[in-house]
Design goal:
By secondary structure, the chain is of the alpha/beta class. About 30% of the residues lie in helices and about 30% in strands. Bound molecules: nicotinamide-adenine-dinucleotide (NAD). The site of nicotinamide-adenine-dinucleotide (NAD) has 23 residues, from α1.
Length: about 375
């Protein structure tokens, strides 16, 4: 049985990571936790876990995997300490406060001969898997705009998520999921980033972000995350030359697909009224017909633990990481470009140096 240690035993750690290791089909058990909150340590003990009061005590044991699930600002420092102590590490998202911190974790993992990855569990959300399947199976061709929206209505930036020093704000909290999905879907270099990031109901951190990305091929994509939208739009709208796909809601299997069935030139067969009098139009017009088609069906239920199964196989030398550090770094470069675009009111061109770096990292 593989051993998991958790740093930061709060809501996500207990509700998801610890709970996942209780599943029969996950060959990993949570053995120890470290937290600064004595109440959380007492609770961990009640669950039969070793509850460590200091990081040194926690790191005196070896784990197959350490999950870092503290508030965001501690991720890098905790991840590096766990890597240096000889453990593989997965941080929660958002993995860091900056791309420089991501680079530090990548370098530290390399130096220590261990892996570093991030819990980008929403790659296994049903809504996203439907869109990805449509692309992978060529159900839709020639996309020109992909829109992804996560729209809440409760204004939900509270606790440490409302504090800039802790890496709060909606764009880091949910934007990182939406951006990771988009860049995982569209595996080509980003050319430009234009963003509007605002505070609508918050004071210290953002709670609304809309980012327009353009890619090398000309394809464009829009990512929107918000906490205060009272009239919601679909989770995904995908517009292609040969059709359009809509997924209604997050984790949902419902939506629709329309595809072009006929596209041909036809005579106008019309009279045109001109200065010279009434004439017949001789030019032709493009006529489209479309119909509702079989919506992409994904056989598997939504199950984030696919990521855990991958990690266990990576530890056993059977698979590669699905969430690769270079993908995480790429995502951070784009997120940072979005923050800059919004701050300075400009479109940020991701320069050749960055693109060649990305190509090298992605090799
Ligand atoms: N992937 C997802 O779907 C998802 C969902 C929710 C939260 N998260 C992420 O999980 C992380 C934790 O979020 P949460 O909602 O569980 O927060 P939380 O506040 O419930 O838990 C954080 C825990 O970390 C502990 N902690 C804080 N600073 C610490 C430190 N320096 N050393 C040790 N322990 C420390 C706190 O005492 C607390 O128990 C965040 O990064 C968050 O973004 C991810």
């Amino acid at each position: 049985m593989h051993k998991l240690g958790i740093i930061g035993f709060g809501g996500m750690a207990e509700g998801y990571h610890y709970a996942t290791t209780k599943r029969d089909d996950i060959d990993m058990e949570t053995v120890a936790v470290y937290d600064i909150n004595p109440d959380r340590l007492a609770h961990a003990e009640e669950l039969g876990l070793k509850a460590c009061k200091t990081l040194d005590e926690f790191l005196s044991e070896h784990y197959d995997l350490v999950v870092v699930a503290t508030a965001n600002n501690y991720h890098c420092q905790m991840a590096c300490a766990a890597l240096e102590a000889g453990n593989n590490v997965m941080t929660e998202k958002p993995t860091a406060m900056s791309s420089a911190e991501v680079e530090t974790m990548i370098e530290t993992a390399k130096k220590c001969g261990k892996f570093y990855t991030v819990h980008q569990n929403r790659r296994w959300d049903r809504d996203f898997m439907i869109v990805k399947k449509a692309f992978d199976d060529d159900v839709l061709k020639l996309p020109y705009m992909i829109e992804s929206r996560i729209q809440g209505d409760g204004g939900s930036m509270t606790g440490w998520r409302s504090q800039p020093d802790h890496g709060g704000g909606m764009f880091l909290d949910w934007g990182i999921h939406a951006m990771d999905q988009m860049l995982y879907l569209i595996q080509e270099p980003v050319k430009t980033v234009t963003a509007v990031i605002r505070s609508i109901t918050t004071t210290l951190v953002d709670d609304y972000a809309k980012v327009l990305l353009t890619f090398e091929s000309g394809l464009a994509a829009e990512v929107e995350v918000s906490t205060f939208i009272l009239k919601k739009l679909p989770r995904w709208s995908v517009f292609c030359k040969d059709g359009a796909l809509q997924v209604d809601e997050i984790s949902s299997q419902y939506g629709s697909l329309r595809k072009v069935t006929k596209c041909e030139y036809q005579p106008y067969d019309l009279l045109a009224y001109t200065d010279l009098g009434v004439v017949h139009r001789t030019d032709k017009k493009l006529v489209y017909e479309s119909e509702t088609c079989q919506y992409p069906d994904i056989a598997l239920p939504q199950d984030w633990a696919v990521l855990y199964k991958n990690l266990i196989n990576v530890i056993d030398g059977k698979e590669e990481l699905i969430v690769k550090p270079e993908q995480v770094l790429r995502c951070y470069k784009v997120m940072e470009a979005a923050f800059r675009s919004s701050r300075e009111g400009v479109t940020v061109n991701l320069d050749d140096r960055y693109l060649s770096e990305y190509k090298k990292l992605g090799e």
